[in-house]
Amino acid sequence: xxxxxxxxxxxxxxxxxxxxxxxxxxxxxxxxxxxxxxxxxxxxxxxxxxxxxxxxxxxxxxxxxxxxxxxxxxxxxxxxxxxxxxxxxxxxxxxxxxxxxxxxxxxxxxxxxxxxxxxxxxxxxxxxxxxxxxxxxxxxxxxxxxxxxxxxxxxxxxxxxxxxxxxxxxxxxxxxxxxxxxxxxxxxxxxxxxxxxxxxxxxxxxxxxxxxxxxxxxxxxxxxxxxxxxxxxxxxxxxxxxxxxxxxxxxxxxxxxxxxxxxxxxxxxxxxxxxxxxxxxxxxxxxxxxxxxxxxxxxxxxxxxxxxxxxxxxxxxxxxxxxxxxxxxxxxxxxxxxxxxxxxxxxxxxxxxxxxxxxxxxxxxxxxxxxxxxxxxxxxxxxxxxxxxxxxxxxxxxxxxxxxxxxxxxxxxxxxxxxxxxxxxxxxxxxxxxxxxxxxxxxxxxxxxxxxxxxxx
Length: 457
Fold this sequence. Notes:
The protein is mostly beta strands and 457 residues long. 0% of the residues lie in helices and 47% in strands. Strands 1, 2, 3, 4, 26, 27, 28, 29, 30, 31, 32, 33 and 34 form a 13-stranded mixed beta sheet that branches. Strands 18, 19, 20, 21, 22 and 23 form a six-stranded mixed beta sheet that branches. It has a four-stranded antiparallel beta sheet with strand order 6-7-8-9, with no helix packed on it.
């Protein structure tokens, strides 16, 4: 399968001088080349390349009576055999102030992640009919939850059935917490907001971190009313929040130009936080999602360059017309792909739209060896497993070889040439390193090829 890749190439500041390092314990977990956490040195023509997902079909058009042109803040997740989408359905006519404007929190469902339907909830009457998918809140519009209502399935083992789904929403007075037994009927978890120290006029999100056994929140923070900061905190119970910090960056990115954060745990490597924050260009009021990752949920490693550029199809180079939805899913029959969703045609005379995009599995960032070839040496890795598995693409004319070094720096394993396109292929050996467990370093020699991830098994 070919993936749509634009020239968003970033040369990361790897240390090009070999240095001793304490072993990094990875066991048999999957590792991606999204940061320099495992990198000891690089030489030659080798780079991290931000991948652009392949654009697919438009999956949703907001052309209902309650739809509109400023629909936003999408959440997508899989719930058993059902895919769920939540978002703000809204209309605003700037040049005709006499025309009515509206905003609702609504939901859509799908069996395949491509064809979406609006369930007839019968909860809210709009223009004489309750045959719509508008969600109802017990406080009506007083809490402003409809503006940015964001939902997650709570997989905390201690969660009661009546609170299996949770959501947050609200504006200036704080972020209100909600719970539901069925993802449709919602009630507040308490009268007062669960988080108050923030701006909140964006997509704010909460999720259960199964790797750390805690809830994690990310929201918009603006201490002076101008800066666009991302703030985070943790909670043991969704109600009381602690460890509040501004998100920080390892390099190359200022806080004051980010809107939505789209932070999430990567389901194949739950020790990693993956994020697609929205970079805002105030001179044109345009937006582009970028990529960043974290290993602690607070300090993120950004890679400059758009994930979905404004030049992607269609109508993305308009006012705020290029946000990514929060969430990533795998669709039936597509085990080697990840589907994500992006907005288009925002704040125009025609309805907003949502388009699906596809990443290769683990394919957010490639470790790319160029024409001149290059190599990357990992730090010492404390591993467990008898096989080394790679996710890589080696086209005709490209080369990829892996060497295994012991603790003295001696080469104890050399792979056969690795060719083709594989998601999880076991490396075969010209010189067998007799893998089992212990401490090794890996040296990747790459020319005109890409490596996305590796793990021991």
